[in-house]
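[stage:ingest] chain + small molecule (pyridoxal-5'-phosphate)
[stage:ingest] validated
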Amino acid sequence: MPKEDFRKYGHQIVDWIADYFETMEDLPVLAQVEPNWLKTKLPRAAPGSGENFEEVLKDLDGLILPAVTHWNHPNFHGLFSTSTSSVGVFGEMLAAAFDQKAMLWRTSPASTELEEVTLGWLRDMMGLPKDLTGIIYDTASVSTMHAIAAAREKLNLRIREDGMSGRRDLPLLRVYCSEQTHSSIEKSLITLGLGQRSMCSIKTNDSFAVDAGELERAIEADLEKGYLPLCIVATVGTTSTTSVDDLETIGSICANRGIWLHVDMAYAGSAMILPELRHFLDGIERADSIVVNPHKWFFTPFDLSVLYIKEPEMLKRAFSLVPEYLKVAEEVTNQMDYGIQLGRRFRSLKLWFVMRYFGQEGLKARVREHIRLAKLFASWVDDSNDFELKADVNFALVCFRACPKGVADPCRLNEEIMNEINSSGEAYLSHTKLNGEFVLRLSVGSIRVEERHLKKVWNILESELQRRMS
Ligand SMILES: *Cc1c(COP(=O)(O)O)cnc(C)c1O
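[stage:predict] done
[stage:export] tokens:
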């Protein structure tokens, strides 16, 4: 592209993004298109000769935008509400411009060293032990997969060399987690060849936290059968309800038995920058690995997940493989040694931008405000005769449901209300099932969310219920 064009379109795109951020509230949160809407509007083959970029940009409005679900919308309350900041976008632009493949230190000194520094800052902001080393992966699913691979390596079972198939000398390896654990744990077991049979899912108590007594009994029973405990996964901020497992108790079980402790705080990790919430981390010093997702609640665009690990050598032992053409003399960190990828994106740049632009105080203020808003919404639910809370609001997620008197099927009612709101485009809520009940989830986490946005959802909920009951 001629440099004049690059400047022209570059400015146009920044203007486009600025307009998008300013006017997004007028767009439907959830894309209102039917499946295949976009596919049928696109040609069957790529253009033979290059097109004028002007034409391409036009299709951004006509074709792409209608098929976008706006995660950045302040009324995106489904799943976990996550959004990008403007500086995060700059980080992505520049990372694309530099186009680093951080495999060796020498192929990307900036990416290698900035990652180390920013992850040290983040670790200290969250009050995590100083002996943890951070490594960036794309998602928590991949971070966790690497953590379990490191735990497996630590058992010295020669799995790297001999694999697992065809071996009679290997006992069944077991990974313990709770019924509320994220599905990425099970996927990791599938990916690593441990199999779903390796997973031992422990019952939770009334607060949806792992029942430590049950955990201990399950381990005992496994040991009697000759199984080998590989890892316990504890969660701080589960995906369904943001419940918190007791790290102190689970940590001592791990310590007494020499089992790897992996802590999944993909969502709630960001909130640990608030000293008033640190009590949730009591016992964290026992963790061998921890996952946190700045792409969730730290205003950093997807993707950026961090794995903190006590013994990064275990990752290296599990994954490092250096062909001749990548051999170098210098003694440095070469990021290709710590995972399945060879090249890595320059992801720390956007995180560095976010941390510098907002500062520790700015980040704390935003996360604190989200928690305040979620608790405010929860107070409206609590004060209403027609709605009820279904789980503790530990962070910025409210689990609740409509429960008006005289309704035969509240599950169906709540599901219908949710579908109605989502298809209106006004807001996006998601759901979960707790003790067999259909429960609505409202997550607060967008950098653009204000009290009026929550008031709007509350008004819609109330009038939707009224309409159905009259
Ligand atoms: C969101 C979430 C994950 C998965 O995150 P990805 O980065 O999308 O893989 C894992 N664990 C918890 C607790 C989560 O909330």
